[in-house]
Design brief:
By secondary structure, the protein is an alpha+beta fold. The protein is built from ten helices and 17 strands. Keywords: Cytoplasm, GTPase activation, Metal-binding, Repeat, Zinc, Zinc-finger.
Length: about 375
């Protein structure tokens, strides 16, 4: 009977809705919550277990007949229809490679707080009100110290404001337009499991803020409140745009980050270690002195091959100061940039990421970004 039950469960996993994790979409889930009737991956099963949701391994655990029947009568599609009935378009649905805090809060929001069942919530959910304020720990621009700062998000004004002192009478430190705002979780880089990087355009450069909150629910609420404001802005800026077009533009994770060594324009200057970020949406390769810098040292636009841009492996002609040997050359119409990676794996990842951007046709907005970068030079 045990083998028969296992066979039945494996058959259920072949159904399209059950063939991916109910919570993050990872393929081939091999765990299940027999309290909720959903099939989940190993990572999400651990989160369910921490919520006192009963979980079992499909292949390793013993399954009673009644539990198999329960899984047959439920499954991922039924759970989605109930627990994801009214997920706002802007709410971020985590994927399998997303950080733990996003996945955990998505699971808690669905099953524990039942935020998306379509029932009216009172008081309303914070990220749905169009206005949010609170304290976040923010890293100083010139140092590594994190201090509490008040942040205020206004969807009506499309602004995120923060204050350097708790006394607001002295006015805000910065009023940031939602127009160019991005938010992405960076727990490893920031050194906190709830670390969030907020980036925006300030004059002729990009400004990075690094923040966190001790409460996982609070930081994810901030993230989705920012996404709600961004979504409202995009709906105003592109009134004919569909959700399919606009949702990927709300916020984005950077396609690749990491250290490389960089030399100067003549390729004879000493190599210096720099932190690089590739923002594929804006086709920008930023480089910084350190990974938590507030502003970039420079930015390189990545166009297309037919516009004179290229990406290839290289061996530098001169090697003053470089300790790393795996080269990447980025060609632009103006000059060639030479970067060195520490390992071949890093070199391959950078080449793949850069070629991914290079192969994508340029949009009208891309030409504007290219022109602005070239004008600043």
């Amino acid at each position: 009977m045990a083998e028969w039950n296992k066979k039945m469960l494996l058959e259920l996993l072949k159904q399209p809705d059950n063939s991916r994790c109910a919570d993050c979409g990872a393929p081939d889930p091999d765990w299940a919550s027999y309290k909720l009737g959903v099939f989940v991956c190993l990572t999400c099963s651990g989160i369910h277990r921490s919520l006192s949701s009963r979980v079992k391994s499909i292949k390793l655990d013993f399954w009673e007949d009644e539990l198999v029947e329960f899984m047959k009568s439920n499954g991922n599609a039924s759970a989605r229809a109930l627990y994801e009935k009214a997920v706002p378009a802007y709410y971020y649905r985590p994927k399998e490679n997303d950080c733990v805090v996003l996945r955990e809060q998505w699971i808690r929001a669905k099953y524990e707080r039942t935020e998306f069942t379509g029932e009216t919530k009172y008081p309303p959910l914070s990220y749905t009100t169009g206005f949010y304020e609170g304290m976040l720990w923010k890293k100083g621009k010139e140092n590594t110290q994190f201090l509490k700062r008040k942040f205020v998000l206004s969807e009506r004004e499309f602004t995120l404001t923060y204050y350097n002192k708790e006394n607001e009478s002295k006015g805000p430190k910065a009023v940031i337009s939602v127009k160019d705002l991005n938010a992405t979780f960076q727990p490893e880089k920031i050194g906190h499991p709830h670390g969030l990087q907020i980036s925006y355009q300030a004059d002729d450069h990009t400004r990075n803020l690094y923040v966190y909150h001790e409460s996982p629910e609070e930081i994810v609420t901030w993230y989705n409140a920012i996404r709600a404001a961004r979504y409202a802005y995009l709906k105003t800026a592109y009134p004919t745009g569909s959700d399919e077009e606009l949702i990927p533009k709300i916020t984005r994770n950077y396609i690749k980050e990491g250290y490389m060594e960089k030399t100067g324009p003549s390729q004879k200057e000493p190599f210096k270690k720099r932190w690089f970020i590739l923002d594929s949406q804006n086709r920008k390769l930023f480089y910084f002195k350190g990974q938590l810098d507030a502003e970039e040292l420079g930015v390189i636009f990545i166009g297309t091959a037919n516009k004179g841009y290229s990406v290839k492996e290289c061996v530098p002609k001169h090697s003053r100061g470089n300790r790393w040997k795996c080269g990447v050359m980025v060609g632009t119409p103006e000059r060639q940039f030479v970067f060195m990676c520490e390992q071949e794996r890093e070199q391959r990842e950078w080449l793949d990421a850069l070629r991914q951007v290079l192969s994508r046709p340029m949009s009208p907005q891309d030409y504007t970004i290219e022109a602005n970068i070239n004008f600043k030079r």
